[in-house]
Design goal:
alpha+beta, 9 helices, about 45% helix, DNA-binding
Chain lengths: ~250, ~250
DNA sequence: CGGATAGTTGAGTTATCTCAAATGCAGTGG
DNA sequence: CCACTGCATTTGAGATAACTCAACTATCCG
């Protein structure tokens, strides 16, 4: 199961394109042990191989008003799911990275949906909800695959609730950074100690339940303490232990 | 589908026992349209009809360290699921009322579990995770049933995140009250405008991400404003519109 | 070049927390 | 039955984390 990156000839054949080749990413995600393989799983479930679609940065793929007929798998780029209150307050519920899947809540029942927005340019595939659902009935592998996606989603939302309800601003921001770094690292999207970090402070605020102004202060503080470095949308981890100490300890 | 309460002879035959007869409650939940019918659904999925078990108030049914082998359905009483941090901070993730189901996250994968604790004395049934899982494979009705439970759970956690991340203390407390009142009302567990309300302020604090002291102040304020009345673990809604105004508006 | 969006920083405000003391109630052991 | 201990709640006083407002700069985009 522990298939390493080097086991994929397609990838090593154009290393420079490692992060920009969506199908390469998809295969990598599917083959590497320990990765989120949601997109791969979903492709197994609904193997009609939908074509890749593209959405520019900062657009809405679907909004909470609609009833999405599809389940979306991110192949490249970053996206978020969120809910907004009528007065403009907004909470981001998850950050989707390549390989992640947004599985609509209303797979089985009509319910309120989240809003799915792109952060960067995004390549994605979409799978008909009904197709996936029908497939669940006939294939136990499909149930397993989707079940794992749900389990993981569920655990993420539990963590989010604990963070929002019981952690300080510093902890929340530090944890979010650590979490994203880990996820990207597992995807092979970290070089040395730095990652692409396209999130605006406004978005970090919406993830952590803070104001953009406060996020700016926290990030400045982290940089002043030499925990991270952040410039030109590149995030470098300078002192991971220091960051962990803030994130997990009170 | 719209089978009313009066359609159940068993219930009307001992109206006084309406709230204390677990099997009565189970049947009611299963038959009345518009109710959460999770327990009923689960019984359909795993029809080996497990016996009723009992746990006194304020005990832990299982803790986050364990790997529960069972899915729990509450038949009578109140329970909570929660996660705790090492330093004692704690976040309650859901309040379970009769008919609700705690579906372990690790149905498909080994993951961190929540802690399941009783608030009042609780009667519950438990269903082997493996049994339910096997049943999912063979029955599309079962998938539907469990799928609906998950959808609902998922929506609840989204709402929780928005509440914790983006709402004020007053809003959170008011919304929690409104939500609980609604759920009990739909179960026929509200008489006139009052409900049994066994939650301690400490628990309300752990649900809303506040301190017990602040919860006390908010509740006192609500009573001073004649929105609710609260004594001897009985909660009376005095001014539902006022409460709604606080809950939804900023 | 102009106009929007992003981020920084300071000053003052406020929602919520912490600490502490007082009260009541429930359960326990003698 | 009583004294005792521990939890739950209320209330005050003071502290603080995070917010709001505002001004300024930098950056991006057409």
């Amino acid at each position: 199961m522990a298939v390493g990156l080097e086991a994929l000839p397609h990838m090593t054949s154009h290393p420079g394109a490692l992060l920009s080749c969506a199908d390469c990413a998809a295969r990598r995600l599917k083959l590497c042990a320990g990765l989120r393989m949601d997109e791969g799983k979903l492709a197994d479930v609904a193997p009609d191989n939908p074509t890749l679609q593209m959405m520019p940065a900062r657009r809405t793929i679907y909004s909470a008003r609609e009833w999405p007929d599809y389940i979306y798998a991110i192949c490249q780029g970053w996206a978020t799911t969120s809910l907004a209150l009528p007065d403009g307050r907004k909470q981001i519920l998850s950050v989707l990275l390549p390989g992640n899947v947004e599985s609509p809540l209303n797979m089985f029942e009509p319910r309120i949906a989240r809003t799915l927005e792109t952060v960067t340019d995004v390549l994605y595939r979409r799978f008909r909800r009904e197709t996936v659902r029908e497939r669940l009935v006939s294939s136990s592998d499909a149930i397993d695959a989707i079940g794992k996606i749900w389990s993981e989603e569920h655990e993420q939302s539990d963590q989010l609730a604990v963070d929002l309800g019981r952690r300080t601003a510093d902890e929340r921001v530090a944890r979010q950074i650590i979490s994203l770094v880990g996820r990207l690292q597992r995807r092979g999207m970290m070089q040395d100690r730095t990652i692409e970090f396209p999130l605006r402070q406004r978005q970090i605020a919406d993830i952590t339940g803070l104001t953009p102004v406060h996020v700016s202060r926290v990030l400045s503080e982290f940089q002043r303490k030499k925990l991270i470095q952040l410039e030109e949308r590149q995030l470098t981890i300078v002192d991971i232990d220091g960051l962990r100490r803030i994130a997990e300890w009170r």
